[in-house]
Write a structure and sequence with these properties.
Layout: E1 5-9, H1 12-34, E2 37-41, H2 46-53, E3 64-68, E4 70-72, H3 82-89, E5 101-102, H4 110-124, E6 135-139, E7 163-166, E8 176-179, H5 181-184, E9 189-194, H6 200-208, E10 226-232, H7 233-236
Parallel strand pairs: 1-10, 2-3, 2-6, 3-5, 6-9, 9-10
Antiparallel strand pairs: 4-8, 7-8
This protein binds the ligand O=C1O[C@H](COP(=O)(O)O)[C@@H](O)[C@H](O)[C@H]1O.
Length: 242
């Protein structure tokens, strides 16, 4: 079980750079070993951080494949759509081919979209029982949710599905598709990014708490992989930093 490595960054700029460097390092290793780099991205505030940190490097972008750790079940043109946000902010700055992006389908039911996305992931990782992403980039809401896994939600107990639909998300929009814990915890590396004072209390609970019923973000512990938290000073202000 991974022990978290926590990196506290003095500025948004340095956090974006460190994250970009880390991802590029993982990409080079994965491409050298397997000829492909498979990453999963989350939405929300992470999009801006990645958009700053990733384009600074040159990379063999054609070998990158981008999946979504979760997505809101809305049209690509909706302002809540994570894929739309990446298209507008990051994917204009890096040359990842359109075919290497794996958006979740918004034009079928949310249940169908989850089944279709799981099928796509299984096809991509054909031959392995449980897909292992090279890196999953995660965010955490001020309530401790990650992806579209919310505190006390029944999806936290999902054992069979790799991708699940949710129609009662407490954070709007209510319909979403999300990676589940078995898939998330099989990643080679999971990196959380949490910035701002609104995340300080929950970050302390996730990293230092001992909850009987852990928050969703605290349940991300890759069984055979790395767990990294990249946070800013404001989010880290309550942490025990001895
Ligand atoms: O709704 C979501 O929220 C989380 C956290 O977002 P943030 O803006 O607080 O960083 C995000 O990781 C997830 O992908 C998204 O669907």
């Amino acid at each position: 079980m991974a022990t978290p490595i926590v990196t506290v960054c003095a500025s948004d700029e340095s956090l974006a750079c460190k994250l970009g460097d880390h991802i590029h390092e993982k990409a080079e290793d994965a491409i050298a070993q397997r000829g492909v780099f498979r990453l999963g991205v989350s939405g929300g505030s992470l999009v801006k951080v990645l958009s700053k940190g990733l384009p600074k490097h040159t990379a063999d972008w054609a070998k990158w494949k981008v999946f979504f750790c979760d997505e809101r079940h809305v049209p690509y043109t909706d302002k809540e759509c994570t894929y739309g946000d990446y298209k507008a902010n990051l994917l204009t700055a890096v040359a990842i081919p359109e075919n290497n992006l794996y958006p979740i389908q918004p034009d079928i039911t949310v249940e169908e979209a989850a089944v279709e996305y799981e099928k796509k992931i299984k096809e991509e990782f054909a031959g392995s029982d449980l897909p292992r992403f090279d890196i999953l980039l995660l965010g955490m809401g001020p309530d401790g949710h990650t992806c579209s896994l919310f505190p006390d939600h029944k999806l936290l107990n999902e054992k069979d599905k790799l991708i699940a639909p949710i129609s009662d998300s407490p954070k709007p929009p209510p319909s979403r598709v999300t990676m589940t814990l078995p898939l998330l915890n099989n990643a080679a590396c999971a990196v959380f990014v949490a910035c701002g004072a609104s995340k300080a209390e929950i970050l302390k609970r996730v990293l230092e708490g001992n909850d009987a019923n852990p928050l969703p973000a605290a349940r991300i512990k890759p069984t055979n992989g790395e767990l990294i938290w990249m946070v800013d000073e404001a989010a880290a202000k309550l942490l025990d930093r001895k």
